[in-house]
Amino acid sequence: MIAQLTGTVVAAGATWFVIDVAGVGYRANTIAGTAATLRIGDRMTVHTSLVVREDSLTMWGFGTPEERDAFELMQTASGVGPKVAAAMLSVFSPGELRRVISAEDVRRLTTVPGIGPKGAQKIILELKDKVLLLADAGSDGDAPQPATAEQLWRGQLVEGLEGLGWSTKEAEKACDAVAPLAEEDPGIGIGKLMRAALSALAKR
């Protein structure tokens, strides 16, 4: 399995990137914190995990091996797929996940999109002993910072709009259009932002 890639970033979005390694372009999904550090033309090393399904092979890339390991560990819990695992790492660093799950903090875990109280309790039950091995990257300044609230909703919105057929450029413009709503109400749901974004796109 491919564990890491070193090459040049040739394309990047809010939730994905393409890295050129010896003339081969590898596309990988990523988390908001890593996406925020990507710059087209930069040479970098990404730590990867390959998610295998019956009908697809999907690569995920992370700024640190600790994030990749946490991503894989989270998926060992019942009901946690790659998207939920990625959302967890967009909200918490690996070390924070260890602390939240070890402390059985259901409230904080439910701040992750896609995790409700029952799901949080199941994750804690199944992973409480396993997360003791999780740690944050060394303090050498290279580890990406946890995503901001704006990075989180923008990433979700762009991904959702792209899934509906809009281009990345159109999706990002729609995000700019609804940004004032998110600023006025930080607790606004992604559903309301999506409806507002679709309305903005329809007026173009």
- The CATH architecture name of the largest domain reads Orthogonal Bundle
What share of residues are in beta strands? 15-25%
**Name of the CATH class of the largest domain:** Mainly Alpha
Q: Briefly note the CATH topology name of the largest domain.
A: DNA polymerase, domain 1
> What is the overall shape?
globular
User: Oligomeric status of the shown chains?
Assistant: single chain
Q: Can you give the helix content as a percent range?
A: 40-55%
Order of secondary-structure elements? EEEHEEHHHHHHHH
Mean pLDDT: 86
Radius of gyration: 17 Å
Task: List segments where confidence is low: pLDDT < 50 over at least 5 consecutive residues.
Answer: 139-145
Query: Reading side by side through the largest sheet, how are the strands ordered?
Result: 3-2-1-4-5
* Number of DSSP E strands: 5
Helical region count? 9
Q: CA-to-CA gap between the ends?
A: 45 Å
How is the biggest beta sheet arranged?
5 strands, antiparallel
For the record, the count of structural domains works out to: 3
> CATH homologous superfamily name of the largest domain?
5' to 3' exonuclease, C-terminal subdomain
Structural class: alpha+beta
Give a structural overview:
Helix 7 crosses helix 9. The chain is an alpha+beta fold and 204 residues long. The longest helix has 17 residues, at 168-184. It is globular. The chain has three domains: 4-62, Nucleic acid-binding proteins (OB fold (Dihydrolipoamide Acetyltransferase, E2P)), CATH 2.40.50; 65-133, 5' to 3' exonuclease, C-terminal subdomain (DNA polymerase, domain 1), CATH 1.10.150.20; 149-202, Helicase, Ruva Protein, domain 3, CATH 1.10.8. Helices cover 46% and strands 19% of the residues. The protein has nine helices and five strands. Strands 3-2-1-4-5 form a five-stranded antiparallel beta sheet, covered by helices on one side. The model is unreliable at 139-145 (pLDDT under 50).
